[in-house]
Amino acid sequence: MELHPMIKPNLSSSVKNYLYKYIRSLDLEGNTKLPPENELSSNLGVSRVTVRRALDELEKEGIVLRIHGRGTFVNPEALNIQVNLMPGEEFSRLIESCGYKATVEVADVRKLKADGKVVRILQLDDGEEIYEVEKIYLANGHPAIISIDRFACSLAGDDLQREAAEGTSTFEILRKSGGCFIVRDKIRIETMNRMEMEQETVCGRKMECDSVLVFHGINYNQDNRPVIYDTEFYDTKYIKFSLLRVKNVYEDEI
Q1: C-alpha 41: how far from its chain's center?
Q2: Domains of the chain
Q3: CA-CA distances (angstroms) from residue 227 to 2, 131, 221?
Q4: Closest to 181 measured CA to CA, from 11, 7, 3
Q5: Is the Cα torsion angle 52, 58, 60, 64 positive or negative in sign?
Q6: How much is the pTM?
Q7: Separation in Å, CA 169 to CA 149, 173, 176
Q8: Rounded Cα gap, residues 88 and 225, in angstroms
Q9: The predicted structure's pLDDT at residue 234
Q10: Strands (E), 21-163
Q11: What's the whole-number mean pLDDT along residues 105-109?
């Protein structure tokens, strides 16, 4: 067994994820109130400040509701959402969350010089070479997602083969090759028609839709450096996102 750098998640993020799983396991019939912060802190063996930060994040995502003088409550509507836009989730799990069997095919692994846009986004040297790894994800055998990951060759070696991309994610390739792990991303969302999608992809013709939802993502590593620029194409017949938004519409009136 090879040893690779371990992922060291932020403590409050770990507590947040633990609380989210705990909330999902609750029987909320008639009672949606969570234990107080000091009780959660004691049970989890972490500081009250850490618990508060985790609850702050869950509140921003609409998972919990804080009512002054009464406590923290689970938002039952949040638990009815199959696919939340907020957490970045691995594509196969995303498809399974929508109720389908997921399979994946590697469409292409290509090596080329980064264009000006990618050089700027990933902060590369002019003329630096990158890999583009294109995959298509199927839902019950139907094309549902195409992903294209772009990253510097220096992060994965100069001889990345198609076989290496089969059965493993780009995140794992970079972690094993260069001790680089992804901690967050920033996305821009748009739509594309079929012609635009086919111009951007190798396997776009396999998609069964006339238009797609597109995410352009910049993925940052543990040192807050952009290391992957990805484009994701979604057939919304199979992948439907939901987002709970916390409203601040009365802020100016207070």
Answers
A1: 28
A2: 11-79 (1.10.10.10), 91-235 (3.40.1410.10)
A3: 23, 12, 7
A4: 7
A5: negative
A6: 0.72
A7: 10, 6, 11
A8: 18
A9: 96
A10: 64-67, 71-74, 102-113, 129-139, 142-152
A11: 95
